[in-house]
Amino acid sequence: MPPNANPVWNEVFFFPLRLPPICDGIQLAILSGNKVLGTATLHLSHVSSAGAELEEGTPGFLPCFGPTFLPFYGPRSDSPRTCDTAYRGRVLLELSTHMGTLDRSQRGTIVPEDIAQVQRHLPRHQFGLCGVFYSATMVPPGPELLRFEISIGNYGDTGDVTCKPSASVTPHGCPVFDGNRYHYLPWYGDKPVVAVTSSWEDASHRWDALNLLRALCRRLVSTQGWRLGWG
Question: Keyword set for this entry (predicted)?
Fold first, then answer.
C-alpha cells in the first residue's frame, strides 16, 4: 500500500491443507509490485504435534500460530552481496486449522470485533539494548575497515531511514595479523560500547509467566538432585 510504511490489511485467507502434510513450510512474502521485499516461513513441525503416534500417547494439536508478530527478512539494498539480509518488517499474523471441507471463499475480511480484541493487547513500551565488545578475533584479512553493528528490527540499522539514528555501531578498525594464521581488531584497552533504544509492544505479561515457569523448573531439578545426593 504505497506510500504507507505501516499498511493494514485486516484480511483472512483460506486454503486446504492435507494432514499429515507433504511439505513442512508455509512461506509468506511481502511484495512491492513484482519485487520481493522480505520473506518468512512457518514450519508446520514447529506449530503442530502429531500426538499419540509419535509422543507415546500424549494428545496432539493441529497447526496453530499466534496471533503474534512474524518478522520478515530480505536482501539489504545497500549491500552488493546477495547473502546479506536485513529486517524488512513484521506482520501480525494468526494461523488456525479446522477439520472439514473448504466451502468458503479463498479470501475474506476480519471482523472488527476480532481486530479490537487484538489491539487491546498491544500497548507499546520502550526497550533499551546495550552491548560491550571485548574482543574480535578470527576476522577476515584484507585492507577494508571493519565495524560491528547491532539492531532490533529497524532500530540501529544504519541503512534504514525510518528510525532515528543511534550509537549502534563500533568504530572502524583495520584487521591486524596475530603472527600465526588469524587476524583481529586491535581494541586493547578500548572496548567499544553500543546502545539501541526501541519501541515495541509490551509483552511483559508473557515474559513474566515464562520466567516463572523456567525458575520453577530449575528449582524442582535442583531440589530433586539434592534429595538424590543426600538421601
Answer: Membrane, Repeat, Transmembrane, Transmembrane helix
